Amino acid sequence: MMGVATNVYRRHCERSEAIHGAAGGEMDCFARNDDNETNNNNNKSEGAISMAASTAPASKSGLYADPREDWLAQYTEEIIDPARPIVDPHHHLWDRGGLRYMIEEMAADIGSGHNIIATVYVDCRSMYRAHGPEAFRPVGEVEFANGVAAMAASGGYGKAAICAGIVSHVNLLLGDGAKPVLEAEIVAGNGRFRGIRHSAAWDADPDVAGMYATRPQGLLLDGTFRKGFACLAPLGLSFDAWLFHPQISELTDLARAFPDTRIVLDHCGGPIGIGSYAGRREEIFPVWKASIQEIARCPNVVVKLGGLAMCLLGYDFHLRPKPPSSEEAAAAWRPYIETCIEAFGPDRCMFESNFPPDKGQCSYQVIFNAFKRLAAQYNEAEKTALFSGTATKFYKLNLA
Residue 217 sits in a domain of what CATH number? Predict the structure, then answer.
């Protein structure tokens, strides 16, 4: 079953792999490979090329399906609770490899019915600087996202404050050298820069890890990484953590070592359902759940509820003739969402779109309708926290 399932997912994610898994990238479905190079202060030309442009050739990850507008258009829904304000705390923007998801596409999705009032941009290696010191090239992504925020502020793309908060990347394996890069990104953000993400996703199974297999194992436990991590809290910056569920304990250790650093666990902690994990959901779920319950004991950690429409979880919505309804999506995701909310509490949880990666399995209408179905059991204050309050507080968004 493992081989068959993996091959099916790989085939249907192939174009997405080729487009988004750019070597050197920091994204839900890929990660930069320049960590050791930068740590050794080695500005090799190979590393420079890997980060030079948003249209850089790709390496494979296979963790999410390529969005297909014609497929998504086969199914639409009436919006549930359309007036509810929503802050989408996790999305990307890119234009590379023949796939474009920029402000126009984002505005179309968030304008499809839900009341999106603001968004947070999260790093995906878009628009890194093509020249200059390797360590400072991610500053270009902050400049790019801040420019998009300025475009949104014009009112020409709808009422939402797109990129109201910006999360980019700094290589924390620079150790103490991460501080000047963080300071440069603060300046580039023009008041919108909120923190960074340095992906730690790794797994021994190459069918799961893909290009992540080349990343150092145990990154979050690395002493030099932690020196870089120590630069965040004094600057008032947060850390977005992207990893796979077997690594949650490493993030728990990091959170306990740095209790003053605010951390958000992305995508429900990355539960895996592909590769050697395929067909073992009943066995794996309690392991994932125990890890979620343990990290929830760290008061400096919150969690993003989403990322479940990637191939990683093992569901095959993207292979079906028509897209799923919000009822179908909610049924699949309910155990993960409810476990996170129970462990963290609504005031430490935030629903996220993770678009466009999650767009490979459902539309923006469906993903937030599914979240609204899952949140129906909570009271009004709890719903406000889940859909806007936690994100606004964690990312210190100025939405006045």
Answer: 3.20.20.140
